[in-house]
Amino acid sequence: MDRSQPFSDTRPYPGQSGVTVQPPVFVTTVPLARPVPDHLGYSIFTLLCCCFPLGIAALVFSCSTRDAIYSGQQELAKRHSKTALMLNHIGLGIGLVIIVLIIFNQMMK
Predict the structure, then answer these.
(1) Residue 28: inside a domain, yes or no?
(2) Is 71 part of any domain?
(3) Are residues 32 and 77 in contact, defined by beta-carbon separation less than 8 angstroms?
(4) Which pLDDT belongs to residue 34?
(5) Dist. CA 92–CA 51, nearest whole Å
(6) Sequential pLDDT tens for the chain (109 residues)
(7) Rg from Cα positions in the chain
(8) By three-state DSSP, how is residue 29 classified?
(9) In 3D, which of 49, 35, 45 has the Cα closest to residue 77?
(10) Measured between alpha carbons, how far is 39 from 88 in angstroms, rounded to an integer?
């Protein structure tokens, strides 16, 4: 063994096998090319004008739809969009029924 080079073996330690390190893999997501509607405006309207509890739930699902769109998850975005739309329709219906009942009650006095 030549003493001019302290380690003539290319392995980390003489007698042991070397470890091969894989290069890091980065996975990037791309927003959807054809995003589904998130119904955010409808959810805010339902929250403020019609039915507060259902408006909050619809707003949460609208934001979840937007997150799924930006992360590229098509099926999750569709499911959350459909749920937000259903909650908005129900909230709007409840709000309209309450408004009609209030008007009808005021007219009967």
Answers:
(1) no
(2) yes
(3) yes
(4) 87
(5) 7
(6) 555 555 555 556 666 666 677 788 877 778 878 889 999 999 999 999 999 999 999 999 999 999 999 999 999 999 999 999 999 999 999 999 999 999 999 999 8
(7) 30
(8) coil
(9) 35
(10) 9
**Distance, CA of 84 to CA of 39 (rounded, Å):** 7
What is the per-residue pLDDT for 10? Answer: 56
Three-state DSSP class for 100? helix
Q: Containing domain of residue 77, as a range? A: 41-108
Number of compact structural domains in the chain: 1
pLDDT at 83: 98
Contacts of 76 (CB under 8 A, 6+ apart): 64, 68
Per-residue CA distances from 55 to 2, 74, 109 (Å): 79, 24, 31
Give the global pTM.
0.71
In a domain, 9, yes or no: no
Task: Examine residue 19 and state whether it is found in any structural domain, yes or no.
Answer: no
